[in-house]
Amino acid sequence: MGATEPQWVLMATGRSPTNIAVIKYWGKRDETLILPVNDSISVTLDPDHLSATTTVAASPSFPSDRMWLNGKEIALSGGRFQSCLREIRKRARDVEDEKKGIKIKKEDWEKLHVHIASYNNFPTAAGLASSAAGLACLVFTLGKLMNVNEDYGELSSIARQGSGSACRSIYGGFVKWCMGKNDDGSDSMAVQLADESHWDDLVIIIAVVSSKQKETSSTSGMRDTVETSPLLQYRAQTVVPSRILKMEDAIKNRDFESFARLTCADSNQFHAVCLDTSPPIFYMNDTSHRIISLVEKWNHSEGTPQVAYTFDAGPNAVLIARNRKTATLLLQRLLYTFPPQKNDLDSYMLGDKSILSDAGL
Ligand code: DP6
């Protein structure tokens, strides 16, 4: 690849949705390799609503690796991006594009730099998890560019090193991240429990309670929890293992009652563990608590759950309705209890789906 050779640019594009954990990952046993203290289970959203689209390009004319997020250049110095790039480069294979006259030998990938441009189809400032979609998409698209032959399990293990929850976004449908036992992380990867068509009655509604960026990032929050919370050990060793088995059954049998009870209980225990951290971490706010009350009262009055709620590291509610009819009722109740403010109305009128996003599976 000397200076006299013709210049070319090889590109690949991919799209990955974000995922919502119904049994949460919280706490690492190895910070560098991103190895969790427990298994977790999530639902991958429909890519039309909350997803990242990434284009990666390689060219002998690029002097360094660079990345742009939503059009703005960001530093690639962080160890996590570098880990993903390194792991994909290691697995790169020969690429030949006869039409463009491009021939890349696998050893050339070590010297070729990449440019990465990633966009989220939802506002990054809305405080919705974007790292899961972004890192999964980066790994997937780099793999496509460099012609890697790895299966999805292996790709999920690489995405895990970018952001833990990203490993679950490699698959659609219901996904389990198996924590693994090995110290090198080789068995810590995601598996698909059921594909997106398995339980397509469910409707997911995301109620954006606050569009502010969270004050405590997941990474630093879970580090503090691991160091200070006595409750975390009990959760990881005693509660989650049996919940995982029950959740797998609930998903397999499309048993909404068990699914909803487990989802709500696990969200509440995750936030209890945050409160048990020193200093305590408050991710939910008064509005989040009011949404929990609304759903709990409704479920109680029906005698059987109609809606499940779950909250990640922020105040926004993820509500899972058992079917479209229930989702319509839920929207009516939400709009009645939380009448839209003027600014929200502007967003509704602009058709901003992130305000109340119906991400039907
Ligand atoms: C509350 O995957 O963002 O959303 O591995 O440090 O990047 P890092 O953390 P991240 O944590 C997600 C935490 C969670 C629960 C979950 O998605 O399982």
TrEMBL record:
The keyword Lipid metabolism applies. Signal peptide: none annotated. Its EC number is 4.1.1.33. It comes from the Eukaryota. It is an enzyme of class 4 (lyase). Residues 17-190 form the Diphosphomevalonate decarboxylase-like N-terminal domain. One of its GO terms (biological process) is isopentenyl diphosphate biosynthetic process, mevalonate pathway. One of its GO terms (cellular component) is cytosol. PANTHER family: DIPHOSPHOMEVALONATE DECARBOXYLASE (PTHR10977:SF3). Belongs to the diphosphomevalonate decarboxylase family. Performs the first committed step in the biosynthesis of isoprene-containing compounds such as sterols and terpenoids. This is Diphosphomevalonate decarboxylase. The lineage of its organism: Eukaryota, Viridiplantae, Streptophyta, Embryophyta, Tracheophyta. The gene is LOC123113703.
